[in-house]
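Model the whole thing, not chain by chain.
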Amino acid sequence: MPTTESVPPEPGSAPDRGLGRRALLTGGAAGLGLGAALGLGGALLGGRALQSGGGSETDGGEAGFGGEELGCHGAHQAGIVTAPGAHIRFLAYRLLEDTDADALARMFNILTGDIEALTAGEGPLADPEPELAARPARLSITVGVGAGLVERVSSARRPEWLGPLPAFTRDRLGNGYDDGDLLLMVQADDLLPVAHAARMLERDLVSFAEPLWSQQGFRQARGAEASGTTMRNLMGQVDGTENPSPEDDDLASLIWLDGSAAGEGWLAGGSALVLRRIRMELDTWDQVDRPGREQTIGRRLSDGSPLSAPAASADERTPSDFEATNEYGLPLIPSASHIRRAHSEDPGERIFRRAVNYEQDGESGLLFACYQRDPLSQFVPIQGRLDELDLLNEWITHTGSAVFAILPGFREGETLGASLFAR
Amino acid sequence: MPTTESVPPEPGSAPDRGLGRRALLTGGAAGLGLGAALGLGGALLGGRALQSGGGSETDGGEAGFGGEELGCHGAHQAGIVTAPGAHIRFLAYRLLEDTDADALARMFNILTGDIEALTAGEGPLADPEPELAARPARLSITVGVGAGLVERVSSARRPEWLGPLPAFTRDRLGNGYDDGDLLLMVQADDLLPVAHAARMLERDLVSFAEPLWSQQGFRQARGAEASGTTMRNLMGQVDGTENPSPEDDDLASLIWLDGSAAGEGWLAGGSALVLRRIRMELDTWDQVDRPGREQTIGRRLSDGSPLSAPAASADERTPSDFEATNEYGLPLIPSASHIRRAHSEDPGERIFRRAVNYEQDGESGLLFACYQRDPLSQFVPIQGRLDELDLLNEWITHTGSAVFAILPGFREGETLGASLFAR
């Protein structure tokens, strides 16, 4: 696999990714020279050496899960079908005007090093606070690209689906959470490594791109969930029951691109992400009685079981029966309910959802992320039906929308995104 | 202990705090009548009954720590010396103009019920989404009052220290994070119960007070810490080493009010909280080399050990020796370093710190909360020294400041804050 060429060699590189390299660099940085002003000598770093490492789900060896590493290498990027972190930050960037293909190749080279270091519990090159990276708590950093980035390399390589979605009538976009050239998803079970990684990535992107928007989402804390339950959203609903499982045989054909479409060979192993910001009107939602809210969704609030099955014998895994009727012949799951409208008989018209809750400036909602091969044939028809009719629409509004091509995975020695530049 | 009288009795009250009461109330709420419009019958709540409970550190019985309850009753409120939650939300309110002493008594009665229910994993009265309360993850709700609230009951009961702190020369306040009449601190290891509790409390306060400001802080996730280490702040420092421990014999005399001061009998068992919002200039801080940053603090970044002890044999628990000098006679801990300037020889001039990190709109910093008997004789002299001279001042700015009287604890059957109204 071709890699980029224009990156200067790292001082004290590969064999010594750990403290030594960092000590060299941070000790040598000119800084504000306070140490020198105080008449201080050499850089006594002290303390334990920070663990290097990789691979899947390794543990740094200290008590608590903070030392666990998820590993960043593989056919697919981490952070998509791997266990969801309790916290995720979506960071979108706009490329600077003079960031051309050569600069992008340099940028991906730097990002690759940052991701390899941070997910392994090390500070990236010249990290001034490597201690904040030392306990990654299953940190993953997943990278996607927007249409604008692909076109700086090759218009022919832009997939048809990569760009703004067709307009939906109920969308109220334009609030600063749309589109973007580059997306970083920083995810972990602990906010501290998320905060630190986001900062280091932003620092290293500064000569290539500028922050466009960021969105912070959460789900239940690691270890707080009852076993085997699906996340609840801020409306109180069990959210995401009807979702393909990472163990399902057909998940791969739903979400991973195989590169067979013209010009899309470079995306084999990648995916297509749709991210929607969905505001919830909780104040009016809370005024609806429980039966009304359950009819709106099609599921019981208590346990997420479908209304088509008796409460006593059903749970959230019970399949929905949209044909089941009550004694008056009315469907037990209303035909305008959310799950009925979202449902498709076409097994190819499915998506893999990874939604999280958000709260910001007194607003609550859902950051709805979903993965697929082709948003135009998977997300769009589903959302089209919901946009047309969904009882839930009275209390939700889509206020942000973005589509990104999630880059294929990379192996040790490879560079993330390299296939975009291959001839 | 006197309690307030003007609160209407709760329907289906004490013996049945659980699902029955909620079912009655939520099923009976008029709402938007969607259920009725859909021709739907009674409220079939289904699912498991939500656990009632109290006491310290009980577990709801399901896997994961989410079911753990901290208990809200006792001589002191929970959330001060109890184990810190991974997330804390500080919610300040301004009283409405017509909220008089009678209204305040009603308000505290309602707050008491809310706190008892939410911390026990139940929704409070008429909670539309009790499922979001069901896994409190050690939720605590701690209540403080500002000068404005006390004066609506009795000016004679306002402690001298309850009000804005004396001005410090470096303070840059006035950004909407100062003062307040009422403070709620909502704390848990999981953001979901925090979000839900905050929403329910705001709903129940709506006829008494309006939101003034809110601040959200975090520390390492529960279970993510290496054992026995102190929190790191976003500057990478081990933050809070030199802090009295909840196990210390003299902690009580430092933080818990004994009610002996004139007019302050009602506060016996309470405390005085100072909350400072401290912005960090991470970009310029990161330009300082490590020795410079360590000299600024007086501790090593690697492990928080004081610079007065050799790195090899010291850790963060090693006592600081401010007299120790190097071969040139210069103090090993610089005389202008943060820990040197913060240190007092007077053992009474100490505070109990509970700082958390914050990130908001691209800004990073520390929400510095500390407890004491008297801010004027404990926090103020410490901060006065730091304000005058502290190497760290180049990278931090205090941008918010508030003082609250933390109410005494309450026992089952008692009402939080009742002593304020006692004759």
